[in-house]
Write a structure and sequence with these properties.
The protein is an alpha+beta fold. The protein has ten helices and eleven strands.
Length: 329
Amino acid sequence: MTLSGGGGGLKDVKWGVVNNGLDFLESSVHHLAISDNRSLKYAALHLFASMETLVKARLAREHWTLVVADANVPTRAAFRSGDFKSISLGQALQRLASVADVTIDSKTVGRIKDVEKLRNRAAHFSLSGETPERVKVVVARGLDFTLHFIEKELRPEAPTGEARLIDETLERVRDAIGRIQVLVEERMKSLQANLAAYSIVLDCPACRQGSLVLPSGQAARCLYCLYNPDGEVCAEEYSASILEIFRHSPTLEGVDWPIYSCLNCGAEAFVNHIYTASQEEVGWACFACGYYASTTEIEICSGCGSPTDATRGGVPLCGDCAAAKFERF
């Protein structure tokens, strides 16, 4: 995996740390989903390994020497081969705060330390005395931090190969994340303040949590599982997963296809029959630009069957059909 050394650091370092970190993340999610005693041990071990490597990967973007623990900085050749002692996770977070203004609040730092304690017990002793519920909560909170960190600090500005790897890994873990109830509860609690900032919050077609938001002027995205496809793709998947209406299904006969061209941006991502995650009716929403309207604000054009602005009054005709009718007269 290629990391840029940033700030005058080493360029194009072939380092598998991002790949390893994401592998450990995927493994941790897998083991937490199983949740027997052996799996919970590996969920803790692999989660800490994921957190540590991904945080260091972000730090290495600032400068490769920042991840080195020894006073004597190794040669570039030694760094490429991994023949050096790296800093701890705690030190990496401190250095990120100092050189990149990446700050982690004290509550989250405490949760990271809880994962580290579990990891130390699992690696050197055992998890005897720890209840499965406690281990699940600690790991779930650590996973919550890791997903937030990937979204805010690792995915942005990632080189093309890393960005693709991150997206592919998240795609594979989304289904498992959605099934882990304790993680759902912890992560959803942590997202409430962010979700409250949006007027419309829908059920996500990827993880089915009530965490799909419609930012103004942007494509829909899920704050829970980080699902963020093209708006038109999201509209089709929402129709299939949430509305259970499929474009090429033989059962579509007699059912109105719910996706149209958006009145605001023109993308074929304007979906009818939208309800919020709390089951309040919205009416129409565009998954490409965030525009939404109630059922009373939108009518179906009597000429071509496309949605049109109902607030203009009169016969429901879209602009094109109204112009064509005017020309005939």
